[in-house]
Amino acid sequence: MSLKPDKKIVFFAKLIVLGGLVAYIGYVLRQQPFDWRTVQTQFKTVRHPAWWLAGLVLLMPVNWGLEALKWYILLQRVERASYWAAFQGVLAGVALSFALPAQLGDTAGRVLSLRSGGRGAAIGASLVSGGMQFYVALVAGAIAWAYHLNVVVDRNTTAARWLLLLLLSLTVGGVFLGLVRQRLVRWLSSRQGIDRWASYWNVAGFYSDREISWALTAAALRYCLFSVQFYLAMEAVGIQLPFAVSASGIGLVFLVKTLTPAFNLLSDLGVREAASLWVFAPFRLPAAVLLTATLLLWLSNILIPVLVGLIWVWKLRIRRP
Q: What distance in Å separates the CA atoms of residue 36 and residue 292, rounded to the nearest whole number?
């Protein structure tokens, strides 16, 4: 297999980061070996753990339903599709992202689910959808990092404060980008050499402020919902921290997961785990219990939707645009 130099750089960069994550998880487990007896003992301290687990699973379709709502709103500029068709496209994307890099698989599933042409615009709409979820995670992550530095004083270093400044700058930059998006799209479309890809980003300039607001609201609601799911998973295994500490920790874990490249390995399994071990390390939580909570979240929010999404992947038809 031969790869172009730029693809080789990306491939090896992902491999290095993945290796670092696995090494960190291995280091933590070596310091604090995984012990099922610890998990079982922790389970026994929880009152009605089945209720927490039931809430985690029952919120799963709502989670992906909100993602489908966001996609449905943005899709109307490309194709007049029903909400159910948008939901099928989202689940097909989830299933494909299990085998392909996350954004590529997600986009492919949504685009290939369309009945009409206009795939360039659909790719653009999918990128806008992903960008909105990224921005919500960025804003929440900046707030979480600010609170975390206030609570965990040892981590409140100069580098940490510079990182906070960077996150806040990106947050403000996102607002500015949203305000000038139409002029930016027109400017990009007029540049020679890149205008041939204009069909991918032109759709971003077609959305009204109302459509952007509704889609961004759906993204924010979805973020809140899967944060609640993470909290339920922690409660299910007996992790009880002050609510603000749990919320900020969850925000940081999702920020790391959002910023870390997709590794094409069981759909980010390992990223959330490594981030959780580092974020919650100052609170002396048993590694085995924390890993169990993250695994429960992965099973509920990723594996089950992937298995359901395979139904619509099977029905996809590869057509020429």
A: 10
Residue pair 109/309 in contact by the 8 Å Cβ criterion = yes
Q: Tens of pLDDT along 232-252?
A: 999 888 888 999 999 999 999
Kindly report the pTM of this predicted structure: 0.83
Question: What per-residue string of b and e applies to 250-263 under the rule 16 or more CB within 10 Å gives b?
Answer: bbbbbbbbbebebb
DSSP 262: P
Please state, in angstroms and rounded to a whole number, the distance separating the CA atoms of residues 276 and 272: 6
pLDDT, residue 7, reads 52
Structure token pair of residue 316: 């996809």
Spatial neighbors of 98 by CB under 8 A, at least 6 apart, are: 105, 266, 267, 302, 306
Judge contact between 136 and 223, C-beta under 8 A.
Answer: yes
pLDDT confidence bin for 162, thresholds 50/70/90: very high
Give the per-residue pLDDT at 165. Answer: 97
Map residue 210 onto helix, strand or coil. Answer: helix
